[in-house]
Recover the amino acids of this structure.
């Protein structure tokens, strides 16, 4: 794996891999800062992404819980909808922290995507989505998200029991930071505004 230092304004692509090594979603990010181990990237609303659906055409949440991790998935062209996100992705952490902003640029809340880190490629960070997540409101109140899906993902072989244990520990660490109002839940970057001269980040050709 490579360890590039990306410059502000660069576009990188965050890839979400599956345990078998196949690549699922692709999210392009505009680089705000990168020190070689921690990337801060921007994904504005309506940016084209590569998403995924179940192979039978249903959206993930349209399927019953017991089918969601057992029906094959396919990649599809999609858009990042409704909100813009600023993402802090640390190479050695089992999570990435997302700041959510509405269409007017007002900070809404944090969402912590629990993930298995897989390092970097020259084009961006690679992660496995851990299914289980943490939502944090302004003021530090936090809650688990998708606990039922995480348990089902273990039964279906999507993640291992050991990985889920590690992801839960990461969620507890994140929750303690949020409750104490410590970084990154101390107001840092809640007033972020992107450079108005930067276009939305784009995806390379040939991904589908």
């Amino acid at each position: 794996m490579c360890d590039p230092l990306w410059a502000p304004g660069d576009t990188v692509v965050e890839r979400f891999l599956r345990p078998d090594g196949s690549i699922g979603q692709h999210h392009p990010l505009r680089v705000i800062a990168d020190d070689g181990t921690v990337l801060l990237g921007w994904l504005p609303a309506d940016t084209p992404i590569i998403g995924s659906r179940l192979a039978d055409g249903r959206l993930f949440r349209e399927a019953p819980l017991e089918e969601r991790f057992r029906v094959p998935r396919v990649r599809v062209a999609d858009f990042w909808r409704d909100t813009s996100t600023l993402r802090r992705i640390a190479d050695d952490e089992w999570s990435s922290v997302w700041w959510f902003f509405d269409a007017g640029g007002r900070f809404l809340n944090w969402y912590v995507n629990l993930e298995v880190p897989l390092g970097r490629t020259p084009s961006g960070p690679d992660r496995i989505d851990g299914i289980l997540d943490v939502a944090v409101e302004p003021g530090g109140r936090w809650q688990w998200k998708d606990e039922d899906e995480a348990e089902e993902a273990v039964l279906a072989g999507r993640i291992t029991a050991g990985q889920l244990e590690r992801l839960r520990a990461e969620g507890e660490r994140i929750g303690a930071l949020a409750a104490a109002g410590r970084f990154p839940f101390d107001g840092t970057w809640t007033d972020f505004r992107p450079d108005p001269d930067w276009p939305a980040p784009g995806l390379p050709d040939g991904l589908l």
Summary: The chain has one domain: 10-180. The mean pLDDT is 94. The longest helix spans residues 161-180. Residues 10-180 form a domain with the FomD barrel-like fold fold (CATH 2.40.380.10).
